[in-house]
């Protein structure tokens, strides 16, 4: 299975039950469930201004929940960060998390651990490494 097939299988599995657990989200995130079912997607990460969803076609997209600009493909960085966050409660996603690649730099903020005090997410997205010069885009909170 390639990455998109793993994501698609995860989404189908998550959507198969109306009350599928989503332990990677805060308990107050239940509001996103009807939205996810409406769009045939599984929420991976809730930001202040957008939610990152895995979609049934295996892609990872953002839904702007602040400015009404709708859907857009997640940047490579947001995709990586959101999959990492969701993998805590969705072990099927662990298999597709990228490994430290040649040319990546150890993250100075977390010292390479990928972890900060909860609920904060390190600027490396939780991996402990960064791709020098990568556009991490506008934060979504
Ligand atoms: Zn870091």
What does this structure look like?
This protein has 141 residues and is α+β, with helices and mostly antiparallel strands. It folds into 2 domains: 3-98, no CATH class; 101-135, no CATH class. It has helices spanning 3-15, 32-38, 76-87, and strands spanning 41-46, 50-55, 60-64, 71-73, 105-106, 129-130. The radius of gyration is 15 Å and the shape is globular.
Helix-strand layout with pairing:
Elements: H1 3-15, H2 32-38, E1 41-46, E2 50-55, E3 60-64, E4 71-73, H3 76-87, E5 105-106, E6 129-130
Antiparallel strand pairs: 1-2, 2-3, 3-4, 5-6
The structure holds zinc ion.
Zinc ion binds at residues 107, 109-110, 114, 122-124, 128.
Q: What portion of residues is helical?
A: 10-25%
Number of helices: 3
Strand adjacency order, main sheet = 1-2-3-4
- The SSE string, one letter per element, is HHEEEEHEE
Beta strand %: 15-25%
Give the distance, in angstroms, between the N- and C-terminal Cα atoms: 32 Å
